[in-house]
TrEMBL record:
Superkingdom of the organism of origin: Bacteria
Annotated keywords: Sigma factor, Transcription, Transcription regulation
Organism: Alkalimonas collagenimarina
Family: Belongs to the sigma-70 factor family. ECF subfamily.
Keyword check for Transcription: yes
Domain RNA polymerase sigma-70 ECF-like HTH: 9-186
Full protein name: Sigma-70 family RNA polymerase sigma factor
UniProt xrefs under PANTHER family: RNA POLYMERASE ECF-TYPE SIGMA FACTO (PTHR43133), SIMILAR TO RNA POLYMERASE SIGMA-E FACTOR (PTHR43133:SF39)
InterPro entries: HTH_Sigma70_ECF-like, RNA_pol_sigma-70-like, RNA_pol_sigma-70_dom, RNA_pol_sigma70_ECF-like, RNA_pol_sigma_r2, RNA_pol_sigma_r3/r4-like, WH-like_DNA-bd_sf
Amino acid sequence: MATVPPSSADITGLLHHWQQGDPQAFTELSNHVHQELHRIARRYMHGERCNHTLQATALVNEAFIALIDADVSYENRVHFFCLAGRIMRRILVDHARARAANKRGSGSENLAFTESIAILDDQPDQLLALDSALHALEQFDAQKADILQLQFFAGLKNHEIADIYGVSARTIERNSKLAKAWLHQAI
């Protein structure tokens, strides 16, 4: 029997109760957040070989610990998962840097931008190039960089991102296409 995912209001309520010291809210929130982070991590890991050096569970555990330890007052579910996306991006980039340091001299290939980016274990330079390009895009258009980060690293859909910015999903889709085109030029 499939469990029904909690609503955004449920997660927001649990976040507020947890931050006020409710241990039961923390337990419920932990279960829901772990499920959602695993869903996101599985998307990253989809199509990767089974002996990949960074497993989805390790990514989730590291991100979850950082989220719990963060000295942040979470406003709502979206704010929480935006931070989760940033943390996962940092973990993945750190992992890619370590892998790249061991694999200097390998050739690079074109990087395809999709709604989520798989971990590129055999080609960490591509993830590093993406991170560098996102930093450059942040300087040029921070909102477009945030949109891509929310798609790639937080696993949010266009309608969820639209809710954050108070615009239509179509506007987010257009901005995402422009940002991806900019990234292709930068990489």
